[in-house]
Write a structure and sequence with these properties.
Layout: E1 6-10, E2 13-17, E3 22-26, E4 29-33, E5 39-43, E6 46-49, E7 55-66, E8 80-90, E9 95-98, E10 102-106, E11 109-113, E12 115-119, E13 124-128, E14 132-134
Antiparallel strand pairs: 1-4, 2-3, 3-6, 4-5, 5-7, 6-7, 7-8, 8-9, 8-10, 9-12, 10-11, 11-14, 12-13
Length: about 140
């Protein structure tokens, strides 16, 4: 089952548009923690969020970080990062999409693509367009 999410949305200045129920936020920053204590952060030059913050569009220097899961967790996972000029986050569905160039970092691995559709529930990232990957070998240092 999915954990309960605690989230905060902050920014330098916000403008609410009553006709669309969207809020535009300059220097947007989001911070969330799930039941397992896993921390996610996001930031961008500006953002658009709907009324209940279940959908967030990050515009300009968009960056999302999902920290590695604690080693004591039943599911271990590496740090996950998304970078691009546009990232569209669907919070409840745990989906990140972009129709613009994006970089995905998973642990030491790095992927770039012209578009992204990432589903955190299924742990599937669909990268399309010109896709490049840099895969690092497992750490063999003593």
């Amino acid at each position: 089952s999915r954990g309960r999410l605690h989230a905060e949305v902050m920014g330098a200045e916000a403008r609410h548009y009553a006709d669309t129920q969207w809020t535009e936020i300059d220097a947007i920053a989001l911070h969330s923690t799930d039941d397992t204590g896993r921390v996610s952060r996001a930031s961008a030059t500006r953002g658009l969020t709907n009324e209940d913050a279940s959908e967030v569009q990050l515009l300009g220097k968009a960056h999302i970080v999902r920290e590695a899961q604690a080693a004591s967790s039943t599911v271990s996972s590496q740090r996950l990062e998304f970078l691009g000029e546009f990232l569209h986050v669907f919070v409840k569905q745990e989906v990140v999409r972009s129709h613009k160039p994006v970089e995905l970092r998973h642990g030491a691995h790095r992927f770039t693509a012209e578009a992204l559709d990432y589903d955190n529930v299924t742990q599937v990232a669909q990268l399309t367009g010109r896709v490049r990957a840099t895969l690092m070998p497992a750490n063999t240092a003593p």
